[in-house]
Amino acid sequence: MGKLESRVAVVTGAASGIGEGIAIAFAREGASVVVADRASEADASKVLAAIRSHGVEALFVRTDVSDEDSVNLMAQAAIARFGHVDILVNNAGIFTESLIENMSVTDWDRVVNTNLRGTFLCTRALLNQMLDQGYGRVINIASQLGQIGGASVGHYSASKAGVIGFTKALAREVSRRGVLVNAVAPGPIETPLLLSETEEWRSNKLAELPIGRFGTVDEVTPTVVMLASADGSYYVGQTLGPNGGDVML
Asked: Which domains, and CATH codes, for the chain?
């Protein structure tokens, strides 16, 4: 028996990167997984096959987490297929670089709408049915940059700080009703998102890390599995940090 046997999870941004790793790790522990991503189903074929290889179901729903209608359709599709959702991982996010003095409103809105508004929309779409069943886990993927900030990524840092604040507020609202809400704030992880950053940014960040290297997806997923399972039953409103020492609390 896996730690998530018979559970149903929605993972946003699961076609690649950390989301892909989380989706596969959940499947390995016995959960069926809804892959919600703005990529095409063909682009998600690898993760869907990996999920199904563990003998559980996988459902792909093309989703723009910043769009209310798209999110609501995703939630409806998930519940229509599985009857309920037990776990939501708000992982979908984007990253761009710009000094605030040069940043366009369009760029600010695009990052904040995906990273923060998307977390709110997906949570709201699935929260009531978790409350009705008296059980749920909401895990928000933040970032260590939401804790310490970062030059040239003010919009990203602000959006992820907002995710951490949202996590704490929601945890205070719903934990007594069986829904536990926590965040994971990874440091820089070797994913397509990291590759989209400039070489200068990566070099500077690498020099700052006490561990001296970037992390891997497999170094993040165990924390998410723990929070999604019975092992995380006393974590409420926490922000856990697999970050290579970039943040020390």
From this structure: 8-239 (3.40.50.720)
